[in-house]
Write a structure and sequence with these properties.
It is built from 20 helices and no strands. It is mainly α and 493 residues long.
């Protein structure tokens, strides 16, 4: 019996190892930093305008169209089938990238890559269905770390192969195809989960972390329904006796889950703190993804790959390393994020705006590289803080829901930017002007949060002065006037 219990407690190890292997191979893409030089080079012979205004926008549109249904289907089918679908999409993407030609074929590539990114949610959600709550943090750390390691190794390997070994971009893509194929093979060995976050809950005690295992509970500004008290958990999560007895149809069960998800979103966004952090998340993520999608085009414009040495891989490796470092040091910063968090959002968003303006005005490729490194490090620093500030107030289920919805809103904003600024059916601006627009976009974000943070700091200072004034007068007031002072102070506060 003791051996059986020990074996059962270690069942989390196997799926964690397999999932980490899957994450390593699907992030091991040495060709990715060189996508634009590959498309505009002799292999595909596409123009920069075709790549920028006709091909790359398709990824944004397909990602938006697929994200919400994939988010729900992922939970409904319990993750593994979606990971298999992601593996197939990876293989199709790189087969087409290697052997297909023309604008339409590359648009199909972008569609399948949109499927890849839309199904990425399954990678991080899968593990929560096969491990106990006390191992969430540990296993999440493994999964995120392995992807960062793989991305760094892939970028360094790609740069070394291009610069030192003279390997062609075609063969780099062949290496990537082999790597994502190995990821697809690994996904077959993942155990099929028996539960999921929303549609296939086993039991409240299994699916929800208890008070000592949850990330944390909300503060005073959170709505009552976002607080993780036992009564609300039971009311929201536990099926009613009549539901258990009647064994409702799948359609009615799905509708009930969707209604509950809508209520959860409404309740959580009624918290002003969560609302503002989520607002920054959506706005900044939209701009960040837009910059990442088109940064190679700008680099190729500043230093054409057919006549200049290309160091995209080295820059991406350094950017990934700096992002990991900035994300890591957040946990050691002893700052009152409730008071100074939005000020940080404003300041670092302003720095991001400055780096984008630098990339617009400079003609030096090294200045562009440096601006990109600072831009990505600042964003990763802020998104780590935002993630913590949102997660600390919610259960795992509600955090996953807000994470998905925030990214959906970000994608909607990014799609609007793409349609208006990039797409040939919109303004179809050249790449340099685009980065002027993106810099202005982040400047607006910085302005919003700087103004709000200054207002919060002034308001907090006034409240402290009022509280000190009230305390002093209460200590010296006569008994008869104390009630009047309390009333006045309550009104001021």
């Amino acid at each position: 019996m003791g051996c059986w219990k020990k074996e059962k407690s270690n069942t989390w190890t196997f799926p964690t190892v397999i999932l980490c292997l899957y994450g390593f191979f699907y992030m091991m893409k040495p060709s990715e930093p060189f996508l634009t030089p590959y498309l505009t080079g002799p292999d595909k012979n596409l123009t920069t305008d075709e790549v920028t205004n006709q091909i790359f926008p398709v990824w944004t549109y397909s990602y938006l169209a697929l994200l919400f249904p994939v988010f729900l289907i992922t939970d409904y089918v319990r993750y593994k089938p979606v990971l298999l679908l992601q593996g197939i999409s990876f293989i199709v993407t790189w087969l087409l990238l290697l052997f297909a030609h023309g604008v339409v074929a590359m648009q199909v590539v972008e569609f399948f890559y949109g499927m890849v990114t839309a199904t990425e949610v399954a990678y991080y959600a899968y593990i929560y269905s096969v491990v106990s709550t006390d191992r969430y943090q540990r296993v999440t750390s493994y999964c995120r770390s392995i992807t960062l390691v793989a991305a760094t190794i892939a970028a360094v390997l790609g740069q070394l192969l291009v610069s030192l070994a003279g390997v062609s971009y075609f063969h780099l893509n062949a290496i990537t195809l082999a790597s994502v194929s190995l990821a697809f093979v690994c996904s077959f060995f993942l155990p099929m989960p028996q539960k999921s976050m929303f549609f296939h809950r086993k039991d409240v005690s299994e699916t929800l972390p208890g008070p000592d295992k949850a990330v944390a509970t909300v503060g005073a500004d959170g709505p009552p329904s976002c607080q993780e008290d036992k009564s609300s958990v039971s009311a929201d999560r536990a099926p009613a006796p009549e539901q258990q007895a009647d064994n409702p149809k799948p359609q009615s069960h799905m509708l009930r889950v969707l209604v509950q998800l809508g209520r959860d979103l409404r309740d959580c966004y009624s918290s002003r703190k969560l609302l503002y952090w989520s607002l920054w998340w959506a706005l900044a993520t939209a701009g960040f993804n837009q910059v990442l999608n088109y940064i190679q085009v700008l680099w190729d414009f500043r230093a054409p790959s057919h006549s200049s040495a290309v160091y995209n891989g080295a820059v991406e490796a350094i950017a990934t390393f700096l992002s990991a470092v900035t994300s890591f040091i957040v946990q050691y910063m002893k700052i009152n994020w409730d008071l100074f968090g939005e000020l940080s959002l404003g300041i670092f968003s302003a720095i991001d705006a400055g780096t984008l303006f630098l990339m617009h005005f400079t003609t030096n490729i090294w200045a562009c590289y440096a601006g990109y490194l600072i831009f990505k490090a600042c964003y990763m620093f802020l998104i780590t803080i935002a993630t913590f500030q949102i997660a600390v107030n919610l259960s795992m289920e509600r955090y996953a829901l807000m994470f998905g919805f925030n990214n959906f809103i970000a994608l909607v904003i990014q799609t609007i930017l793409t349609v208006v600024v990039v797409d040939s059916r919109g303004l179809g601006l050249d790449i340099v002007i685009q980065f002027l627009i993106y810099g202005s976009y982040f400047a607006v974000i910085a302005g919003i949060f700087l103004v709000r943070s200054i207002f919060m700091l002034v308001s907090s200072k006034c409240k402290r002065k009022t509280a000190r004034y009230c305390k002093e007068h209460l200590n010296h007031a006569e008994h008869e006037s104390k009630e009047q002072i309390v009333t006045d102070c309550t009104t001021r506060l």
